[in-house]
Design goal:
Elements (H helix, E strand, L loop, with lengths): L2 E11 L2 E6 L9 E2 L2 E3 L6 H13 L2 E14 L4 E13 L9 E5 L11 H4 L2 H10 L4
Parallel strand pairs: 1-6
Antiparallel strand pairs: 1-2, 1-4, 2-3, 2-7, 5-6
Length: 134
Amino acid sequence: MKTINVVAAVIRRGEKIFATARGYGDFKGKWEFPGGKVEPGETPQTALKREIKEELRVDVEIGDLIDNIEYDYPEFHLSMKVFWCTIISGRIELVEAESARWLGAGELDSVVWLPADLTLIGRLKSEFKKSSLQ
């Protein structure tokens, strides 16, 4: 099975995190954390900065690695490194996504997540509780 290496950003602003709804493909309309494929020769952090700039027109500071998610879709295996991020410049513009929302801890279950991203939701809820963010 083919492996696709991607990166994703959990962009945090205060008590909320940013999520986007896919605007294309088999998973159109499902929610995910923004990011994309790692190109040959790129580090995950470099790829994530590039992808966020391309998709959202903002610059981010890459924080700690949250998780490395391994997920088998029917046609491929996804290896996704997920990082905490903060916006350091620019104003969000949706280039590829059809919609976006800032979600608090109590809103994480209010959207239909892509399967690989869904595996992260429980962990994010725990992070919100640890930091007393509701």
